[in-house]
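Per reviewer request, we include the raw input and output of the structure prediction for the construct analysed in the revised manuscript.
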Amino acid sequence: MQTPLKSGIVVVMKIRLIRSAVFTILAIAFLSIGSKNVFAATTTTTSSGYPGPTTSTTPGPNTVINQEGNFTSGKVINIQSSGFAPGATVTITLNGVNIGTAVADSTGTVTDTVTVDTVTSTGGTVSINGTTYTVSLTNNNLTVVGSAPNSTQLTVENIFGLTSSSGGLAFTGINILRWGIVIFALLVIGGGLIMFERRRSSRNA
């Protein structure tokens, strides 16, 4: 027969195990939420609130390459190509296909509004200045060509990709690791409860 003292000890141990499980789940959940802020930032943000180029290089005379980063479905981005003569008419191509012309503003900048409509495992669709195009997941090239202030030809290449989540691979890997720890902790705690109950039952038999 179980004494009141033993019953009290059993209750205390159960409470401690349950409390440990709750603390473990809350801790892992907190770390997983925090990891979004650490790993989701793949592009820089301009003052206008849109992702801007992460890097800008000049591989040759009058050619500038802007690495815009990866964009998720539903994202609206203003891609800016600068360095043209104010009022210059520029030609715009997407992955080598002519998609129209535009006129540089008073600062010599051409702004193309890109909206990511869909993202699949192989590519997606984007709307550029109101027209929809099919693109790949990586290395899409929005090229703007026109006259620079010194009357030479300037080429600005804006490279971008698509991703199904803002966190990318780093965030996904961290999530798998953290939730794996949660599952392992729950299995250990559950196993401990089962063993405890079996031992208690054998003592009372």
